[in-house]
What we know:
By secondary structure, the first copy, chain A, is mainly α. The first copy, chain A, has helices at about 5-25, 30-35, 40-45, 50-70, 80-90, 100-110, 120-145, 155-175, 180-195.
Amino acid sequence: MTDEPADTELAIMEATFEAVCKHGYADVTMQDIADEFDKSKSLLHYHHHTKEELFGAFLEHLVDQYEEKLDDLVEGVDSPNERLREFVNWFTVGPEETERTSLHLALLEMRSQAQHNQKVREQFRRSDSLARAAITTLIKEGQAAGSFNPDADAAALAQLCFVTMDGARARQVTVDETGYASEVAETLLELIFEHLDAPGE
Amino acid sequence: MTDEPADTELAIMEATFEAVCKHGYADVTMQDIADEFDKSKSLLHYHHHTKEELFGAFLEHLVDQYEEKLDDLVEGVDSPNERLREFVNWFTVGPEETERTSLHLALLEMRSQAQHNQKVREQFRRSDSLARAAITTLIKEGQAAGSFNPDADAAALAQLCFVTMDGARARQVTVDETGYASEVAETLLELIFEHLDAPGE
Lengths: 201, 201
């Protein structure tokens, strides 16, 4: 039974995920989260006193999951070009991915309010650093393998890839234009591969 | 006195601007806007019945201003390279630009809630189209002048420029990292100029 606090915390995170996807971040209440949580509301309040505090923990949980996902993302893909392409295309959100769309909308709301919440801001910085580090590694591996121009600035290109696809995804989920992010991904990859002296396919 | 309704509407837009910069979009109330408005609160309610309706009109007003700004932005700058550089760098927000930072934070909040408000969503699409059209024109003018590779896809590059800098600005205003957007602008311009067979300076 030593896992019980961790199980409870995980159940709270899952309830928060469900509630925020349904109601959005601005409108979601502790009661909405309690409604998704099959244990007592007092247990929720015992673990997290305020919505701000709960959301700091929730975002940390999401970024932990993101970190694991980043490790697996290009598993089994061998060519450096394909690994980079896979990574960049991961940021596109398909029209059928309604839960993922809702989550990214809620994350945008949280981000627009990050200046009020130090812990939330730190987690956004952390997820940004993780994604940039993962792309930097992909590019450096491609350079080491002789597939990419060794003189290119891997960190600067990783920052460009991240911020472009983050912006494209935000644009797509908010104004709901199917295909926007994948169009951007194509142009971005064309310019990146050109800069890396690498064939596009 | 035929200008009175237009003057009143402009005063309402200015009051909304002040209130949203102070309180943010999620938290601002009609009362906060009335507090910034030196005419009567009933006049505000007469013009705009709900916060949603007022914000649809407010965003339209901002996009109108944006459209005028886009026309003037590269006025007096002759070289196609410098015009593109000027445009891309316009998206960076300096740490001293506190009002502009507040406005972009409020716009991000509005955008994250755009799926609930058709008029807001339309205005975001309109501002996106305007910016992309302006960059497309800059690139096509550079192609016509022989400065840029005529085979490059001006519209795709314009979309990339817009979404990258929009994402970089959003990132910078939310996690408050000075210099982030200008670093991204440098890398973006390097790749764009390379693709356009144009010297970077």
